[in-house]
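Researcher: We plan to redesign the surface later, but first we want a full-length starting point. C-alpha cells attached.
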C-alpha cells in the first residue's frame, strides 16, 4: 500500500495540489467519490476489490485505513490533503477514526460495480487461496 506525497504549490494565497492521472497516480481515473459526515465515527470499508485500483486522501480532517493482503497488515493515517494512499485490488481495507470534519476522497479506475466487491473476510481468504493454487 504505497503512499504518495503530492508536492504543493505554496504562496501567500495558500496551497495548490494537482493530481494527474498516469503521473501522480498510476491509473486513469474513471470515478471520483467522497465520504463525509461520519460524525458518529463509525468504521467503514470491510471489503476487498477483485480488480479495482483506487487512491484515497483526506481533503479535510483525518482517518485511518487498515490494510491486510494476508501477507502484511498496514495502517495508514491520512491527515493531509498532500498524502495519498494507493489501494490496489485484493487488499482487505477498513476505515476507522474519522474526525468529524473528515472528507475522504477516493479516485477509482472504474465505475461502481458491486460484483467487484468481496465483503466477507472468509470469502476473501478463499478467493486469495484459489488464486494461488
Ligand atoms: C472502497 C472504500 C474506500 C455507489 O452507489 N456508488 C459508488 O461509487 C460507491 C463507492 C458506493 N455506492 C453505494 C454502495 C452502497 O450502497 O454506496 C453505498 C455505500 O458504499 P460502501 O458501503 O461500499 O461504502 P464504504 O465506505 O464501505 O466503501 C467505499 C467504497 O464503496 C469502496 O469501494 O474501497 O470506500
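Model: Full-length starting sequence:
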Amino acid at each position: 500500500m504505497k503512499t504518495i506525497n503530492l508536492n504543493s504549490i505554496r504562496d501567500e494565497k495558500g496551497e495548490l495540489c494537482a493530481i494527474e492521472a498516469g503521473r501522480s497516480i498510476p491509473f486513469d481515473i474513471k470515478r471520483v467519490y467522497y465520504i463525509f459526515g461520519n460524525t458518529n465515527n463509525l468504521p467503514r470499508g470491510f471489503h476487498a476489490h477483485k480488480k479495482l485500483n483506487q487512491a484515497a486522501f483526506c481533503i479535510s480532517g483525518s482517518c485511518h485505513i487498515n490494510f491486510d493482503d494476508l501477507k502484511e497488515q498496514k495502517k495508514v493515517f491520512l491527515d493531509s490533503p498532500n498524502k495519498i494512499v494507493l489501494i490496489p485490488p485484493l487488499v482487505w481495507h477498513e476505515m476507522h477514526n474519522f474526525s468529524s470534519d473528515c472528507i475522504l476522497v477516493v479516485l477509482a479506475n472504474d465505475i461502481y460495480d458491486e460484483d467487484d466487491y468481496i465483503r466477507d473476510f472468509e470469502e476473501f481468504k478463499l478467493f486469495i487461496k484459489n488464486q494461488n493454487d
